[in-house]
Write a structure and sequence with these properties.
The chain has 9 helices and 11 strands. By secondary structure, it is α/β, with parallel strands linked by helices. The protein has a single domain, classed as 4-Layer Sandwich (Purple Acid Phosphatase, chain A, domain 2). It has a 6-stranded mixed sheet. A 5-stranded mixed sheet has the order 3-2-1-10-11, with no helix packed on it.
């Protein structure tokens, strides 16, 4: 029994470089299916005026999207996030994507601090829920303060040059669940020919980067299915977080990126900037220094 407990503790600590709130780790108030069922009753993260402005902005066929992950806000002064919002965004960035673990423990005050700084950016932002965001019944706070965990958002108009569909998936429990998976299959089948670009962003990563990778998608069959689904439907880019270790690989035409965490402790901070120029979609890893 002692060996078993030591193994579990080591696995948990290895899977999260920031440490773990153990009471919140071993239980989850919600499931992927239950969160999916709520999606149509919850708001987007940005208000509708921002969404309309986003669509109009994209008519120029050139725009950037900034992507971050694993912010792990702990208190009311998240300097790492403030620096990103105040110093790292460019005038061509029209939206921000966040691949999850926005908070450390899923507490109300952490979500409020996160949202306050993100709103300060002055451009629409969209988050994918992470496992830390579910700690201590975090879904109760997330659903009211942040919004839905599964959704799609279009930039530009379908059929126009540069039009891009962003799809947020809820992998906070290490699986999508059947209801979300069926929704994704139908969405990609219906939308793949309408948009120039398809971009997926979620929290749990597909790929192991070494023995320190403990928690990711829990079912390899689900990973294989999703990779085949992305390939056959022309997905351009899949953005993930969770692992706190950068990973970049292109498989059968689909680019997969696992982002660095946006924290200073024990890592080199970076974010990803996506650039859309008509039919071309490119990306770059942007290093952050100075805080």
């Amino acid at each position: 029994m002692k060996s078993f407990l030591l193994l579990i503790s080591a696995a948990v600590l290895a899977g999260c470089s920031l440490g773990v709130d153990f009471a919140g780790f071993f239980s989850s108030y919600s499931t992927p299916d239950s969160r999916f069922e709520e999606k149509d009753d919850l708001p987007y993260h940005s208000d509708m005026a921002s969404l309309e402005a986003l669509s109009l902005t994209a008519e120029g066929y050139f725009f950037n999207i900034a992507v971050i992950s694993d912010i792990h806000v702990k208190d009311d002064a998240p300097r790492h996030l403030e620096q990103f919002v105040d110093s790292c965004l460019s005038p061509d960035d029209i939206a921000i994507l966040d691949c999850g673990d926005s908070t450390q423990s899923g507490y109300d005050y952490q979500f409020l601090s996160y949202k306050t700084v993100m709103d300060r950016a002055g451009i629409p932002w969209f988050a994918a829920i992470g496992n830390h965001d579910l700690y201590f019944e975090g879904w109760k706070s997330y659903r009211t303060m942040i919004g839905r965990s599964v959704y799609s958002v279009g930039i530009g108009e379908p059929g126009n040059r540069g039009s891009t569909l962003l799809i947020a998936l809820d992998s906070a429990n290490g699986t999508l669940g059947m209801k979300q998976l069926n929704w994704l299959k139908d969405l990609l089948s219906e939308q793949k020919d309408r948009w120039d670009h398809l971009v997926i962003f979620t929290h749990s990563q597909f790929f192991s980067t070494g023995v320190n990778t403990v928690v990711q998608f829990t079912d390899t069959e689900e990973i294989y299915f999703l990779m085949h689904l992305f390939e056959t439907n022309g997905v351009d880019l899949v953005l993930m977080g969770h692992n706190h270790i950068w990973d970049d690989r292109k498989i059968k035409g689909v680019q997969y990126l696992t982002l660095d965490p946006l924290i200073k402790e024990g890592s080199e901070d970076s974010f990803v900037r996506i650039t859309v120029t008509g039919a071309d979609l490119t990306w770059e890893r942007v290093m952050i220094s100075g805080y």
